[in-house]
Amino acid sequence: MNWIKYYLTETDSTNTVAMAYSVGSVVVAERQTNGRGRNGRVWHSLDGNLFLSVVLPMCGYQTPLLSFVAGVSLQEALAEFSVRLKWPNDVLLNGAKVAGILLEVQSDKVIAGFGVNVCQCPTGDELMYPATSLNGRISLTDLTDRLLNALSENLELFETKGFEPIRQKWLKTAVGLQKEITVRLPHKTVFGVFEALTPQGAISLKQSDGTYQTIVAGDIFIK
Question: How far apart are the two ends of the chain, measured CA to CA in Å?
Answer without folding.
Answer: 39
